[in-house]
């Protein structure tokens, strides 16, 4: 390879959840192709086989310490479907509150701890915003790093009240939740959420959540930014985004998917669907196939009801433990921005560049989702009726095929469960980052982040290009979920 | 000024949940604790700026001795598979199995801390058929050995400190690190399974908010009911080591307060209880697995006596989701 053409094996990436390695082929000062390796295999799907289905509720949250509740919710949904039961209104709301608390905490962790720290790097020392970013977001020392950790800890008191602890609760059950909050618990939940709202409205938005959610176009976003450019972390991010062109950086596949989030009274807060070229189509999960062409996995491409997880101990063909899920043969980007787009928020479509998501869109999508979800949590808490039941009881069938489709912070999470003779015969999981960080499929189509990295700028001498880091972290990958 | 203590944090066959939990530390929070106790995370996968080549430099400096290492924290199991190669986790960017990094770096550290039950004993990653051949650092389940071997001692002469728990309470980890920073941790501070005694000498049962139901054997029959969960719902808080009910989780929680049983997550092999987690196996109506240090005959005698003496209030509440029968207001002679 010439001076201009080189290959980098970048890793370990940190400030992603779990371990990540990316091979970058570089030429002409930019990434020509990227190969994403999820280097950790644990084999949860095998662990689950043969177990009593109820034990899934203890095992699956432990797939991931940051998406723990999401894994529990997916399993409880699949088991509820197997039993043919639905939680009572209180149970739905309590589960939604607990789940939303984790998703918001994850968005908070991502922005303040994982993502912004890269703008405090020395490479940006000459930028006018650099000293402010260093003061606020420098890893381990920034003022907002500590402040956000405190806000997160206090917000997660919701878990102490409703879920016992976080991560790894057993409170989420097929028919609802195991803790029936009383009047005092309910009012305490409201106090916690209102305290969090006050912090977010000061620190992140420097505006009310409602005003932020009314921003309905890129022009309105620019005006909102310009009006008070010095206040709030979202505006600081927009300043950086304008300076570095983050609105064009890291274009994904332009196809977005959501399974729908927080169903209450038969309607989700964020709807399910597939977005492509401005059209929202209904979701059809029968079109999902996991391709194994670039995975260290044995077997044939299959729908998760038929698929299995047999690792290739020889690691002969492929470059990742991650399978490559495809919807109707195509990749899909999942996450908060996909949910925003599919829910029809008018700002979302305008955040696309040339039809694709980008670093700015993903980050704005996450922060807007914090705002929208806090508002919904306040409503759910106010609708809880202490004294009434929070759980429905069901019987586990001897055999069943059932799915649990939910939205984790990072995107669509699905559990496909087959019960035979009262035991788990098969349990297949496709996590959000399995979609976003999938390797190439049999047709050679790169996964979403592999695609997004193409064209990323590489500065002379860079060993772990900073643009690559921005793009990778803009997806908020959870590598432990990815392979599981 | 005290010398700052260097801490390297590595993650392997686990979920990262012990770090996520540690980030919930409160009064003081994680960052002020690290700062005021001079704990310097030379690299932590969730908290540090360094990525890629910068991390490899940090690791290289430790291996070469340029960077002295006070504490190695290892989160997640060590993976031996497939076939003893460790290739189920190659540390990204290094082309080397994580278990090799562990074996190279651990002997250089003054202290080695296994954070969580996976790192301590294998944990949930070793459940079922243990697909990745996961093991703890110095225990493989209950058996001494593991990735580093039963005879391993860090530079301080201590065995691996096993902060077992799934996940660990934030303060179990931060308090261990603070004690290590102060040089105030000795072999006698570890219990027989290598766990810090400051939390492992307690039982989860201590301070359980369901104590009155336990006293009368007034049992919940289904999850969400507020009675004792030992008889029917698989709770083994009377045997499980941990101070979960005397120091709260996430403000004011614990497993039992959240309405579900203690599954003994601080113990080796908790992941394979040989039964459904939320169901108590019984022989002749007597739960298998009696409270720790309790002779069986006495337990049966006391249980039948207390069951006979159970007040109606306690009996009714035990099978309800809320207190349906409040305690009566009785004039007492006690002033």
Count of alpha and pi helical runs of chain A: 18
Identify the most extensive interface between protein chains.
A-B, 91 and 84 residues
Strand order, main sheet of chain A: write it out: 1-2-3
Count of spatially separate domains of chain A:
1
Class from secondary-structure proportions of chain B: alpha/beta
Query: What is the 3D form of chain A?
Result: globular
Q: What strand order characterises the main sheet of chain B?
A: 2-1-3-7-11
Largest sheet of chain A, if any? 3 strands, antiparallel
| Overall strand count of chain A | 15
Radius of gyration of chain B: 22 Å
Amount of helix of chain B: 10-25%
Q: Tell me about the largest β-sheet of chain B.
A: 5 strands, parallel
CATH class type of chain A: Mainly Alpha
> Would you tell me which CATH topology of the largest domain in chain B applies?
Rossmann fold
CATH fold label of chain A: Cytochrome-c3 Hydrogenase, chain B
Tell me what portion of residues of chain B adopts beta-strand conformation.
5-15%
CATH superfamily of chain A: Cytochrome-c3 Hydrogenase, chain B
**Secondary structure tally: strands of chain B:** 13
Question: Uncertain spans of chain B, ≥5 residues at pLDDT below 50?
Answer: none
Give the tags.
heterodimer; A: 484 residues; alpha+beta; Cytochrome-c3 Hydrogenase, chain B; 3-stranded antiparallel beta sheet; 18 helices; globular; B: 335 residues; alpha/beta; Rossmann fold; Cytochrome-c3 Hydrogenase, Chain A, domain 2; 2 domains; 5-stranded parallel beta sheet; two-stranded antiparallel ribbon; 13 strands; 12% strand
